[in-house]
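User: Could you go from structure to sequence for me? I need the amino acid at each position, not a summary. C-alpha cells:
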C-alpha cells in the first residue's frame, strides 16, 4: 500500500487502553485524524498524551483497543507504520557536537537518500537555518534546535508527523517560529498530530481539537463546535466568544456538568 495515498483517515484510534500496574493511563480513547490536517490533543500534564503518541509511533504497546496509521495497524504492522511517520518528542533529539547541516546529512544517509547534502541544504533553507547551518548545534537557541529537530523528522517526506509538546520550554518568539513551521507543513499536505497543554497553541493551529482528561477524550471537534458547548456571547459592552481556556476548564472540571 502506498502510505502517501492510503484510504480513509491518516490516523484512526478506537477504544485504546493502557495501564501501568494499577494506574490506568488511557481508558478507551477513540478519534480519527483526516489526511493533511492538524489535530491537537489537548490535556494537562499526566492526561495520557505522551503515552498515546508512544503507542501510535510503535514505541509502546496498548493493553486494549486498536490504532492504525496510514491504514497500517500499529500492533500488526509496526514496520510499515514507522516508514509512514516521524516523531518529534518534547526534547530536541539533535547532536550538539555536529553542525546543523551535519545533523541533517546524517539522517539523510541513514534513510539511504541519494544526495544527503542537497537534502540538508533544502531543509536548512526551508526552516530559515542556512546562516546557522555550518555552526555547531550547541550554539543554537532553543527555537533553532526545535526547528532543526522538526526538519530532521521530515527527511524522507513522511506523510504523518507526531509532535509531542513541540513548544514546551520555548520563549514566545521561538514558539511563534515553530507555529509557523507547523502551518507550513500543513499547507504542504503533511498530517500533523500534536500534543499540547497550551490552549492558545491548539486554538491557533488545529483544524480539530480533542480534550484528553484523565485518560479519556471528554470532548472533541472544531474550535467553533467546542465553543457551542458554552453559552453564546452576550451583547453587553463587548461581544466575546468563549475562549478555548474556558471550554477546557469547563469540560475537565470534576463533577461539573455543562449547561
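Assistant: Here is the amino acid at each position, in order:
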Amino acid at each position: 500500500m502506498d502510505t502517501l495515498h492510503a484510504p480513509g483517515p491518516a490516523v484512526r484510534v478506537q477504544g485504546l487502553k493502557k495501564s501501568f500496574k494499577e494506574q490506568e493511563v488511557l481508558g478507551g480513547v477513540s478519534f480519527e485524524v483526516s489526511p493533511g490536517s492538524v489535530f491537537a490533543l489537548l490535556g494537562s500534564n499526566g492526561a495520557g498524551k505522551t503515552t498515546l503518541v508512544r503507542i501510535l509511533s510503535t514505541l509502546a504497546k496498548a493493553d486494549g483497543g486498536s490504532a492504525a496509521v496510514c491504514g497500517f495497524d500499529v500492533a500488526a504492522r509496526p514496520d510499515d507504520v514507522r516508514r509512514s511517520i516521524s516523531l518529534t518528542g518534547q526534547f530536541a533529539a539533535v547532536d550538539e557536537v555536529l553542525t546543523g547541516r551535519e545533523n541533517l546529512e546524517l539522517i539523510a544517509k541513514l534513510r539511504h537518500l541519494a544526495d544527503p547534502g542537497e537534502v540538508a541544504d533544502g531543509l536548512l533553507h526551508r526552516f530559515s537555518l542556512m546562516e546557522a547551518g555550518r555552526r555547531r548545534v550547541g550554539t543554537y537557541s532553543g527555537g533553532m534546535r526545535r526547528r532543526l529537530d522538526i526538519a530532521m523528522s521530515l527527511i524522507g517526506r513522511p506523510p504523518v508527523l507526531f509532535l509531542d509538546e513541540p513548544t514546551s520550554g520555548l520563549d514566545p518568539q521561538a514558539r511563534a517560529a515553530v507555529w509557523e513551521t507547523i502551518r507550513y507543513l500543513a499547507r504542504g499536505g503533511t498530517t500533523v498530530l500534536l500534543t499540547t497543554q497550551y490552549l492558545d497553541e491548539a486554538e491557533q493551529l488545529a483544524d480539530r481539537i480533542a480534550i484528553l482528561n484523565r485518560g479519556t477524550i471528554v470532548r472533541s471537534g472544531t474550535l467553533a463546535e467546542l465553543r457551542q458547548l458554552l453559552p453564546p456571547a452576550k451583547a453587553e459592552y463587548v461581544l466575546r466568544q468563549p475562549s478555548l481556556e474556558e471550554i477546557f476548564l469547563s469540560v475537565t472540571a470534576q463533577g461539573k456538568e455543562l449547561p
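One structural detail worth keeping in mind: Residues 8-252 form a domain with the Rossmann fold fold (CATH 3.40.50.300).
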